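Schema walk-through. Below, the input block comes first and the output block second. Nothing else is stored per chain. Lengths vary across the set, and this one has 167 residues.
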Amino acid sequence: MSEIERPQPLRKQGHPHALAARERKRDEAAAIGIAPDYIGAFVDRFYARIRDDALLGPIFAERITDWDHHLDRMKAFWRGVLLNSGEYSGNPMQKHFAIPGLETAHFVHWLKLFYATLDELEPHPDATATVASRARMIADSLLTGIAMQRDGLVASRAGDTLPSHGE
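--- output ---
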């Protein structure tokens, strides 16, 4: 496991209630199978699917030259989202703003590939539901941010039509 992949220890700084909440979130995730190894396997399989995809593959191929680095960053991102690891730093919104032509159809397709990967690797139904919900929330946020940048406040609910897991 590379240094970037290795989950960082729980940050020891902060309010005791916040530290306890982070620890509780990690324990709850572990109880349903959301662990660093699961996240690593999920990210690897999902992005292998993306790279082979006719719609999304070319978008990624134009921007990513070092896939190992990208996968390490995505693993850190998802450990941050799902395990509150605090190891990811970056600005996903800014990265997505820089991609011309992203539309609802791209995010719908991304979610469908994401959900299919989740279903293949499901460690526990609650894990699948948790990860799927977070993915949809992230897709909604990105799509809404892009639409608002392009169209203003009229686009503030651009992600309302994105599919949820099981739809």
